[in-house]
Amino acid sequence: MSALPPPPAIVTPHVRSMGPRVDEVMKLCCELSANQQIKTAVKSSGKGAAAAGGLAFAGGLFGGPLGIAVGGAVGGLLGCWLTSGEFKPLPQIIMELSPPQQQKLYDDVMAVLGDVQWTDVAQLLALVMSNGALKQQLTAALVGFVTKELQAEVHYVD
Description:
Layout: H1 20-36, E1 38-42, H2 45-83, E2 87-89, H3 90-95, H4 99-113, H5 121-129, H6 132-149, E3 152-156
Antiparallel strand pairs: 1-2, 1-3
């Protein structure tokens, strides 16, 4: 019995995958934001404002000026509760990015890194952390991405 020839190779269209360079840049961004102790809040503050404003309005309809004050206070507390816990460490946000968002962040960071060469993430971290100007530019690019692309507020932990 003769051996069957191997099946023909299946040719698939080129799919852009998140390569090791993207992973390394995401790790750099996580380390950089952890080092800077950056926290972010996705702009859900509108929920809190809507709760405060809505209850103040309803209070005003039913209770006049005193109702506005009571409704605003209760709405403010409700809004605080609705938005509590919204602040997350930026490394956590970065790890939760979708692949297109990771690619956009990668492109932004690579625009700053330019022709910087590295062999692994440890070397990349060492290069960035030892260069104050580069570190500052990358932090600015990271904060810019977070505020523009994710519409998030950025806070530095003291």
